[in-house]
Specification:
The chain is mostly helical. The protein has 19 helices and 2 strands. The longest helix has 50 residues, at 44-93.
Length: 417
């Protein structure tokens, strides 16, 4: 198809050229030029050709005259680009002094002025030279005002002035013209300054922009929502805030944990328990398992039986065993508590398990073992050496994981590798 199209164009061009040649040949025109006794006679076609040749000659002469100056300009441009590259590499390698020097030199080229000064400000900021960073940002604001504003907000936030950073970004946020990096800085500044309304407002545009990866955004979202729930003034305020959250946000484990603990603090144990149990039915969460065992209430025995039923599916979950041990301690089931807690410690030693095991020994009247467990809990907190407590009657704690038999859809056991 393209070949036939090209052939057609050539045929049309040839026809037009032939028609034009015959048209000019019939009457080539006449041009007379007289100047100070000089007389030039020619045809129109020849005059046009001479004009084109004169224009080409003048262009060549002009470029030859400009070549020495262009050589200096090209050299300046090449050196500036090289300095920008070496400055960015030095910035990534941590040679911030070299980076700032090269980037400031690269900023002498107008095309590179904005990015070079922004990178120089970042280099000065990493060196702790906040004054030099401000100077670079003042100059960069003339070429890249939005980027300079975002970097200035980051500088203010790192200086411990999140309220000033928030005030700097708020006008653009209200107009909806804030860049993705600006929304990120706004969220962190609002969170640090306690303006949780602003922080929550930044989540939607930040998620839409994709400026943060999935994990980073999920961590920031959870941090903002947890802080908002923890600052609820009373139960009514807490429930109003909880009902306003989208369904997806009400399914984040850390957010559910914050709501349940805050609701229990206001005496709303039943709603807190409902949210935790609903979440655990959807997805297993060690964080919520621990919260489930620590919430206050008079239904500890019923919760214990429900949690023990989860052992069939999660026999090697150290957090579940810790939760069971804590509930047994609350019910004064000392022997049962010790079994759960010792297995939890064998699978994953932790401060909470040592402390709960100390409570179990204390409940049995074994003060020596209780003191040893408490000392181990403090030792783990300080990072010191832990002295194992006495195990079961035979002196051996079962540390092996319980193997579950897995079957496929036909009921045939799966082979483990």
């Amino acid at each position: 198809m393209r070949l036939w199209y090209a052939i057609g164009l050539l045929v049309v061009a040839a026809a037009l050229a032939a028609f034009g040649w015959h048209w000019v040949a019939e009457d080539p025109g006449y041009v007379l030029l007289r100047l100070r006794g000089w007389r030039v006679e020619t045809t129109v076609v020849a005059a046009l050709v001479m004009l084109l040749l004169a224009w080409a000659l003048l262009t060549v002469v002009w470029r030859l005259a400009r070549w020495p100056f262009g050589a200096f300009s090209r050299r300046h441009r090449r050196l500036s680009q090289q300095r920008l590259g070496t400055g960015l590499i030095a910035l990534m390698e941590g040679r911030h002094g070299d980076a700032e020097r090269d980037l400031n030199r690269a900023s002498r080229l107008d095309r590179l002025r904005g990015p070079a000064l922004l990178a120089a400000a970042e280099a000065a900021l990493r060196r702790g030279e906040h004054g030099r960073a401000r100077e670079a940002l003042d100059q960069a604001a003339q070429s890249a005002p939005q980027a300079a504003r975002v970097l200035r907000a980051r500088l203010l936030r790192r200086e411990g002035k999140p309220a000033e950073a928030l005030a700097l970004l708020a006008p653009e946020a209200d107009k909806g013209t804030l860049t993705p990096g600006g929304w990120r800085e706004l969220a962190y500044a609002a969170l640090a300054s306690g303006n949780l309304r602003r922080a929550r407002e930044a989540l939607a545009p930040l998620q839409k922009s994709g400026a943060l990866g999935h994990r980073a955004y999920a961590a920031l979202e959870a941090q903002v929502l947890v802080a908002a729930l923890q600052t609820a003034a009373d139960g009514a305020d807490l429930n109003a805030l909880w009902s306003q959250l989208p369904k997806a946000q009400r399914r984040v484990s850390a957010v559910i944990d914050a709501y349940a603990r805050r609701a229990a603090a206001f005496g709303l144990t039943l709603p807190a328990m409902d949210e935790v149990e609903s979440a655990l039915r959807r997805e297993w969460s060690p964080l919520l398992i621990e919260t489930y065992g620590m919430l206050a209430g008079d239904d500890v025995e019923a919760r214990l039986h429900r949690a023990e039923s989860w052992l069939d599916a999660h026999p090697n979950d150290a957090i579940l065993l810790l939760t069971l041990g804590r509930m047994c301690v609350r019910l004064k089931l000392w022997g049962k508590a010790k079994q759960y807690l010792q297995r939890s410690l064998a699978l994953a030693p932790g401060v909470g398990a040592w402390e709960a095991l100390g409570d179990a020994f204390a409940g049995q009247g074994d003060a020596e073992q209780a003191r040893r467990c408490y000392r181990n809990a403090f030792a783990m907190m300080r990072g010191d050496t832990v002295r194992p407590s006495a195990g079961p009657a035979n002196g051996v704690i079962d540390t092996s994981a319980i193997a579950l038999e897995e079957r496929d859809e036909h009921g045939v056991p799966r082979m483990r590798e």
